[in-house]
Amino acid sequence: MSDRSNLAASIDGAPLPDEEARDLWTRFSRYMDEHRGDAAGFARENGYVSVTPTFERGQALLVVRTTEAPPEQPAPRREDAGSPAARGGAGKPPPRRSGKPTPRGSGKPARGRRQR
After folding, report:
1. Which of 28, 39, 51, 98 is the most exposed place for a label (fewest CB within 10 A)?
2. Position 40 in a domain
3. pTM reported for the whole predicted model
4. Pairing of β 7-11 and β 59-65
């Protein structure tokens, strides 16, 4: 058997020692048994901003934040494969279509279309 615990916890990204992690998990589990689905209540009651249980690298991980999480950096913009820039026509808009179907049997072509 591994000497690594199946339960882990971190506070603001810093991992807790095994004993403290087990204690935190025990308190969290007891609270959740009495207040099903109320992780936010556990966080408030213990002075945390948030508590999130997750699973990482074969361990149950309790992620605790005592401050607001730093804002996420926006992902770098990638050109959409279907965009005009990705097709090489950066300044050229796609052709416009009226969206109206050609009436069948009328003998007249729809507006904007060539007759064959």
Report:
1. 98
2. yes
3. 0.55
4. parallel
Locus of tokens 């300044």: 91
Neighbour count for residue 62 (Cβ, 10 Å): 23
Distance of CA 53 to the CA centre of its chain: 16
For 69-108, write each residue's pLDDT tens digit. Answer: 655 566 676 655 555 555 555 566 666 666 666 556 555 6
Q: Which two tokens stand for residue 60?
A: 């149950």
State residue 26 phi and psi, 5-degree precision: -60, -50
Residues 6 or more apart in contact with residue 7 via CB below 8 angstroms: 18, 21, 22, 25, 59, 60, 62
Dihedral sign of CA atoms 1, 12, 42, 23 in order? positive
- Establish if 103 belongs to a structural domain: no
Distance CA 5, CA 13 (A): 18
Look at the chain and report how many structural domains it folds into.
1
Answer whether residue 56 is part of any domain: yes
Domain ranges, residue 15: 7-65
